[in-house]
């Protein structure tokens, strides 16, 4: 039930972004929705009609390469999207004078919508279907192939909506990706650090006492000095990163620190309130 609600909310937001911001301002998208929008700009055929047709054509090619649960969810999603488009398309939206503003907010709303859709394990269909076929038949990388196919669709927009609006489309896609990652990662994002220092024990003690957190210790050997050293691996909330780096630098100003973005953390993560 929760997944169904997520799909409805996400698809509703996506349809609003397309009809109220993208279509009035000649902004395109990626995937089959991007193709449908280019058809709309070029031939004045509503995306509510072209989207399911394109999806059915792609699905007929790649259905045997997709998990059944994903097929069912995506079919529901595409049908729902077409219904929402037909509803909101009738609510005529005026173009915004500042197209950049329209591109940013289209990406913002789309990103939130995609976040809900992906959380439900669904999609709006499209290039990922073709990419999966190439992956199975030719061994091509799934993510890279999807990116190339989406890029081809966006570049094709130059010949229909022109280079300027294609650049606005790129802004929308970028903002959408950032927001989607934020929604999927949650508000409580985390960072992972690798710390190499001869004072690693003191750093570890201060992390425990002052940040109420912990560190995992690995042992590595530097190739240049041929020395065996302790390597600390620490996962911490993003808003506490600066405090952690300050503690490390107070102990060892020359400590080698590498910070990684963390997509998801579960099980065994220790982080309490900062101690005074």
UniProtKB/TrEMBL annotation:
It is found in: Cell membrane. InterPro entries: DUF2179, N-reg_PII/ATP_PRibTrfase_C, UPF0750_membrane, YitT. The chain crosses the membrane at residues 38-63, 75-93, 99-118, 138-161, 167-187. Residues 214-267 form the DUF2179 domain. One of its GO terms (cellular component) is plasma membrane. Pfam families: DUF2179 (PF10035), YitT_membrane (PF02588). It is a multi-pass membrane protein. CDD domains: YitT_C (cd16380). Keywords: Cell membrane, Membrane, Transmembrane, Transmembrane helix. This is Uncharacterized membrane-anchored protein YitT, contains DUF161 and DUF2179 domains.
